[in-house]
Write a structure and sequence with these properties.
two-stranded antiparallel sheet; 5 helices; 11 strands; about 25% strand; globular
Length: about 180
């Protein structure tokens, strides 16, 4: 039985990164549900394309057991995250990611995902691929210059241009 994936969609999301994950899941018949990291299901890409997700992140924490993996689809994530740090949806995202990690489920992400995982205490001592601009900010994970890294339950790609290199390992784990 194929594993199910929860996809966190920040607002605005990097459409290039998001659609690489979604198309790969769709083409490989891997079921997924999208969750807006926002107050409602309407989000947009950082190029202005309007998107409608299946649900909001506030509802994910109670549904963690339905899924085997979670994807953090980066966008203008860290600036928006900082701008909205006190918003309930960011706290809900952190709780959901921690719940997935505590249950040993697969965590997947690119770009700022490594920084997010690191900042909320996920992946301590594990190697991560991260955007070159944030390497010196990573404190608890082991930041690498690799295009992608799989270490334990953490699957990371450096940027959206490296997702295609990570996807074979992701798809293998989800089949």
């Amino acid at each position: 039985m194929k594993k199910k994936v929860a996809v966190l969609v920040v607002n605005p999301v990097n459409g290039s990164g998001l659609f690489q994950y979604l198309e790969s899941f769709y083409e490989n018949s891997i079921p997924f549900t999208t969750f807006a990291v926002a107050e409602n299901t309407s989000v947009q890409s950082n190029s202005g394309v309007k998107l409608e997700t299946n649900d909001v992140v506030a509802n994910l924490t109670n549904r963690v057991d339905e899924f085997d993996a979670v994807v953090f689809a980066c966008g203008d994530a860290m600036p928006k995250y900082a701008e909205n740090a006190n918003q309930p949806f960011n706290h809900d995202m952190q709780k959901a990611l921690k719940a997935f990690n505590e249950k040993g489920k697969i965590l997947i992400g690119h770009c700022a995902a490594a920084l997010l995982f690191d900042s909320i205490g996920i992946g301590k001592g594990l190697k991560v691929a991260q955007h070159p601009y944030i390497k010196n900010i990573i404190k608890n994970c082991i930041a690498t210059d690799d295009q992608f890294v799989v270490d334990g339950n953490i699957y990371t790609a450096r940027t959206e241009t490296d997702i295609q290199k990570l996807l074979p390992d992701v798809l293998s784990a989800l089949r």
